[in-house]
Amino acid sequence: MTVADWIAEPTNWVYLVLALVIAVSALRVVTSTNVVHAALFLVLALAGTAGLFLLLSAEFVAWVLVLVYIGAVIVLFLFGIMITRAPTGPNVEVDHQRRAPAAMAAFLIFIVTAGSALTAFGDKQISNLGRGTSTEVIGEQLLQRFVIPFEVVSFVLLAALIGGITLARKDATPAEEMAREGSDA
Amino acid sequence: MSFGLELAIKLVVIAALIPGSALVLGYAELKISAHMQSRIGPYFAGGRFGWAQLLADGVKFIQKEDIIPDNADRPVFKVAPVLVMISTATLFVVLPFGPGGGFVVRDLNLGIFYALAISSVGTIGILMAGWSSGNKYSLMGGLRAAGQLIAYELPLVLAVVGVVIQAGTMSMQGIVEAQIAQGWPYAFTQFLGFFIFLVAGLAELSRTPFDMPLAESELISGYLTEYSGFRFLFFYLAEYASMFALAAIAATLFLGGYGFWGVSASWTGPIFFGGKILLIGFVIIWLRWTFPRFREDQLQTLAWKWLIPLALANIMVTAVFKVVF
Prior knowledge:
The complex is a heterodimer of chains A (about 180) and B (about 325). Chain A has helices spanning about 5-10, 10-30, 35-55, 60-85, 100-120, 135-145, 145-170, 175-185. Chain A is mainly alpha-helical and about 180 residues long. Among the domains of chain A are: about 1-90, Four Helix Bundle (Hemerythrin (Met), subunit A) (Up-down Bundle); about 135-170. In chain A, helix 2 (about 10-30) runs antiparallel to helix 3 and helix 3 (about 35-55) packs antiparallel against helix 4. The longest helix of chain A is centred in the middle third of the chain and has 26 residues, at about 60-85. Chain B has one domain. Chain B starts with a helix and ends with a helix. Chain B has helices spanning about 5-35, 55-65, 75-90, 110-120, 120-130, 135-165, 170-180, 190-205, 215-220, 230-255, 270-290, 295-325. The chains are: A mainly alpha (about 180), B mainly alpha (about 325). At the A-B interface, helix 3 and helix 4 of A face helix 4, helix 5 and helix 6 of B.
């Protein structure tokens, strides 16, 4: 593909804008010194990713990303940050000294994922899955071919949920219970 | 007609519909609440019935000074109302006002799922507004709003699942067509889903009895406290426009949308659809001026202990019926 071909394809321009938005906002997530700003830049990065999925006509994945990651995960992040530290006002600084190891780790992860993707697929074109919309295909695959992994994943999530509650919740010992009832009366 | 021109016309219509629907519902709220409290309500503006009251309010808001508190996080404070407005405005893309491509901006394959996903983005705008104001009342309001929206998003989505199972499609026009083909609206078979959707929808709109985030007796005005002028107008418009959008989604999913028993002419679609939206809008306003506010713990109990199990049971029963019959 020559440069002229690349320019002639409008999809590439949309891709370029999205990729720039993702790259810049992802960088700001880690360099921002305000923890709430970092979370908000993560929203932007995820929105760009959803845009990339839309570009690949994987609309179901795109809107799941918006609903689950932006609508729930980030909201919980923000909720957690605000309910614990509640750093209102303009001068909230967060930073740490271990920048070099962090940069190294980020670079190595990039090498591993980019390298494995390139060696696995090269410049192969991934052909369209064919029949139906992508949502129908995903639904059928999940509940027919991949039904057992699907159920296992949901079971693991349930176990994690129960584990989280067990760790976080501290039931009073019988002695404390007695003392509390005593004070109430 | 070329694709670009058609899209431009549709966008202009939607851009007019958002403030238009907010004006109609806002005026209805003023007049209905006044009637319920044995008052007259707006009277002088516009000559008769005070019909221009909200237009006058809008002009007043635009004239006001743009105040940003010293303690505020300026960029976040400015973006928050825009984000809330965007999440509301993009809902209008999938609302089907009639059959065929001419009455809807785009009948997405994933229509209802898209609407649910995009409306969840507004929560971030509300959290941003609450945090960036640099005011403890605002922060408390923002946190309450987020806790409430997370809790009620689940029953809202689960209530929709029953309809999607019965219709076999997520496209908004597809759901309406399925109801027309079946002969009666889903409110009869999905009555439990309809009830859950309305209750959870009221909570999503933060309207009484779920208006803890804005509880004026304890939080001044919650996350809106520091907003004034044009930015406040944005939140106000978004509130009534999302009320319209929610009523429209409820009408589409449960009341047969643009269809009506036996009538098939396409131009009647917007009329029936508008009528159904106004009906649901009236119920929402009626509830606001009838019930007191829930306490925070009652509100969470209702969502997690009642609505979600009920919605799950509804899905089970619907799925069994779908397979058996």
